[in-house]
Amino acid sequence: DAGVIQSPRHEVTEMGQEVTLRCKPISGHNSLFWYRQTMMRGLELLIYFNNNVPIDDSGMPEDRFSAKMPNASFSTLKIQPSEPRDSAVYFCASSHGGYQETQYFGPGTRLLVL
Amino acid sequence: SQQGEEDPQALSIQEGENATMNCSYKTSINNLQWYRQNSGRGLVHLILIRSNEREKHSGRLRVTLDTSKKSSSLLITASRAADTASYFCATDARGGSEKLVFGKGTKLTVNP
Description:
The structure holds 2 protein chains of 2 kinds.
Chain A: E1 5-7, E2 10-13, E3 19-24, E4 31-38, E5 42-50, E6 53-56, E7 65-71, E8 74-79, E9 88-95, E10 104-105, E11 109-113
Parallel strand pairs in A: 2-11
Antiparallel strand pairs in A: 1-3, 3-8, 4-5, 4-9, 5-6, 7-8, 9-10, 9-11
Chain B: E1 5-7, E2 10-14, E3 19-24, E4 29-37, E5 43-50, E6 55-58, E7 61-66, E8 71-76, E9 85-93, E10 100-102, E11 106-111
Parallel strand pairs in B: 2-11
Antiparallel strand pairs in B: 1-3, 3-8, 4-5, 4-9, 6-7, 7-8, 9-10, 9-11
């Protein structure tokens, strides 16, 4: 199995630009998570999908952030417009059965907003 | 918040020594998980211990859970340079949103 795939691995953009991060979960997993990691705040859950439906988006910072999961094999996290404080590493993870099961993390997307 | 807090924040040891990391949390949990993160990589699951378990082993890893003290420890025996990484505990609150909340991690350096 290829594991969780994320793209791009690195993204440098200017403030105000739209950023789209992509994730392909492990085949057969029905839960998908987006996390953000910074030195100051650690690893924070942004949103959790189960069977392609958003279950918990309480961690999404503000309306500039949106996430979609159009099918079981693809999800996007979009930031529009981006701001320097959005600079972080964004991880996608998937699991067989929600929070209580082992989560498998992708390699992350390192985002720098100038 | 039921966020786990790891202790110490950083640990430096020599190869062959044992490394012990601790995690404390605030509310009752269903499970506690430990993850490892190598520099520049994603997190890798190490071990899951359920609230009704007290100890679990996996290879050179030993995890204990004391629900009365709301704490857990991760012991790595006979450490290797390849064990150098950050280690995170993650908890899911029983009766709450149950989302997995990660601590800030312990940065372990194993010197060859």
